[in-house]
Amino acid sequence: MHGKLSLALLLFFVGVLLGLTACYYTVLPPNAANAALTPALAALWQTYQHTNIQDGRVVSWDEGGITTSEGQSYGLLRSVECNDPAMFDKVWQWTQTHLQVRLDDNLFSWKWKDQVIGQDAATDADTDIALALILASRRFSRPDYLKLALPILESIWKHEIVAQGNDFYVTAGNWSVTQNYPVLHVGYFAPYAYSVFAEVDPSHPWKALIKSSYDALHWIYFEKRLALPPEVIYLDRQTGNFLLQLPGRDEAPVFSYDVFPIFWRVAVDEAWNRRGERRLRRAMLSFFQSEWKAKGKFLDRYSVDGHPASQQEGMPLYATLHSLATLENPQLADQIFSHKLSFLRANARAGKDTPYYLANWLWFDDAFEYGYIQRYGA
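The chain above was modelled as a monomer; its predicted structure follows.
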């Protein structure tokens, strides 16, 4: 949906903002059983449905109208946390029909526009889709969703996990596992999801992925002493060591959009599992505390030692960092909200100037802050 909003749609958004629509799904945030979604979260969800979801297909208009497995996974997770089983089923049916079409596994082709145009799978989306199905099976009392999730978990383990001695590592996708130096996308690490997978699939050592994810983050922050995490690192199959660059290549590692989610993912893992990783979480915020004090903004691209590589602000970064800061630096969280996020969320609720990726992370951050990101009972 592009261009100016119709008068009818504008009136709809006004109704949402006033809390006049029936979008208040029953959820169970901590210490507030049977509370409704906040008006802001409800408005963000309703606006997103009307601007980005068509018959279960999540559309990224600002990227030429493509659909990705990542976008579908976000639609599924948001449907669960909004207690919206009808939308969950629509998004799942579209995802299953159009993206779960790979011949040799139960993973999801990553890119679609009129047809599949990116056949390979992306591990972050496969992980989030499987997690959404498990959570939906609990939230909506639908054991059939769990049955659908288990073959996905089997395929993730078979096609996206690399064994190195007694350790296991999450690679970027099925295309990476056979490489001499498998690619690990730092922003894909989801230890909170691996905990849930371990509950439903004891046949695989999912907790080993929790360890290796934190091992990689410790290596980045404490061994390499980087200011910022790179989008990707590499696993040396010969030594079992992590690498910042491929041998013989000159590409410098960068911090940008693909790694933004790691701050939210670490925050969720702490909220769900209490890992005791405070030193790491504070290290992850350290650069941004200094950057905020000096400049009052965050850019969308830096070198990993913290030098600017862009003049554009990283809008989704405000959202993912805000979630982590709510745990470790409430003062920074308040400043990010008052100076950046309040305006961005207002725009998103009104359906304007909000790219698909930003719209999703604004919602996930808001939902995390108010306790709506939950694992539900096993």
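DSSP finds 13 helices and twelve strands in the chain.
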